[in-house]
Amino acid sequence: MPCKKKRLLIVDDEPSIRESLSLVLTEIGYSVRAAEDGFSALTEIRMEIPDIILSDLNMPGMSGFEFLSVVRRRFPAIPLIAMSGAFSGDEVPSGVAADAFYQKGSGVRALMKIMESLTPPKRLPMNSPALYPQFGAAIPVLKEMLVLSRSTDGRAQ
Question: What CATH code is carried by the domain that includes residue 112?
Answer without folding.
Answer: 3.40.50.2300
